[in-house]
Task: inverse folding
């Protein structure tokens, strides 16, 4: 026979799980909306909205080993493309989102249809005090089929050796 205490405690436990799940679903929806709008803003050459999606201390890591930019550096790199309305179009095909226990940090990965073919985007988002999610880090990667890895290594060899030499001398 169940104790009279067990039923209210079980009910509270289920209620807490339900509330937590609802909060996570709400945050997933907000993050999906933020990232979808961010991709739309760059496709539409909307410079201000695109860069307002970043935290002040955000980092953008591009496909080239030399592309590690803070927000101001990334703005400088990107501005000519936005001014010419010659920006990039990345269409998200699939996205996974994960959360810290306190629901204030999220990390994600997404598969993108781009002018480079299929790419992977991944990143970290922070929940601001106003409840808005902002991108703290974004990493863009070109995907390489495993069967083509040796070919890609050969193509990258010269450039990689220059970068390795430069980094090892620091």
Result:
């Amino acid at each position: 026979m169940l104790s009279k205490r067990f039923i209210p405690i079980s009910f509270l436990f289920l209620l807490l799980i339900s509330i937590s799940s609802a909060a996570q679903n709400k945050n997933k929806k907000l993050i999906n909306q933020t990232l979808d709008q961010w991709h739309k803003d760059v496709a539409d050459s909307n410079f201000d909205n695109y860069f307002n999606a970043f935290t002040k201390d955000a980092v953008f890591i591009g496909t080239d080993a030399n592309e590690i930019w803070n927000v101001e550096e990334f703005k400088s790199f990107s501005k000519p493309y936005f001014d010419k309305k010659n920006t990039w179009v990345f269409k998200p095909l699939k996205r996974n989102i994960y959360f810290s226990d306190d629901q204030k940090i999220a990390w994600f990965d997404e598969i993108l249809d781009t002018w480079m073919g299929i790419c992977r985007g991944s990143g970290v988002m922070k929940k601001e005090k106003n409840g808005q999610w902002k991108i703290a880090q974004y990493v863009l990667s070109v995907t390489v089929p495993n069967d083509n890895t040796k070919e890609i290594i050969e193509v990258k060899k010269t450039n990689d050796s220059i970068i390795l030499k430069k980094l090892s001398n620091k």
